[in-house]
Amino acid sequence: MEFDLITIFPHVLDSYLNESILKRAQKKKLIKIKFHDPRAFAVGRHKTVDDRPFGGGPGMLMKIEPLYKTLKKIKRQKKARVILFDPAGIQFSQAKAKEFSRLNQLVMIAGRYEGVDNRIEKFIDEKISIGSYVLSGGELPAAVVIEAVSRLLPGVLGNRESLKEETYSEELKIINLKLKINQKE
């Protein structure tokens, strides 16, 4: 599976994504993680990727132009999805991780500042949140999604059976339900 992360800080996750399970998965070519910096498509001497909101208001927004050009540059595979991290998005869950694990490619946009120009919505499939709080950017949510999805891919974990006993596995829910029923009898 290929993970493409669009971020203005392409090295911020290097250490985390190149350790332990994710490192082994990359070495085995089970996953590929690519970073894309929209500054490469920004214009001007300073390669600015942010601007004031058109309607006014506090803070800055990420510009649409560099993001659009970055998205356009990424080669899309069959069974790909483009997501934007947003605190108001769909809550990321184990079920969503399982859904994403069936894809060939997940393109993720890590916003910064006060968010992203709303015109980006024409080019994404969905907004994803990892919780009801605000972070400075989408890089940490991307790391969460990459790890949660990667663990579900065949060959990534040493023992695939361990997935069955995890807190959010369907098998464990059934076992716990049977235990509760037996305790009541």
From TrEMBL:
Give one GO molecular function term: tRNA (guanine(37)-N1)-methyltransferase activity
From the UniProt record, list the reaction(s) this protein catalyses. guanosine(37) in tRNA + S-adenosyl-L-methionine = N(1)-methylguanosine(37) in tRNA + S-adenosyl-L-homocysteine + H(+)
EC number(s) for this protein? 2.1.1.228
Q: Which EC class is the enzyme in? A: transferase
Q: PANTHER family from the entry?
A: TRNA (GUANINE-N(1)-)-METHYLTRANSFERASE (PTHR46417)
Q: How does it assemble?
A: Homodimer.
Family according to the record: Belongs to the RNA methyltransferase TrmD family.
Which protein is depicted?
Answer: tRNA (guanine-N(1)-)-methyltransferase
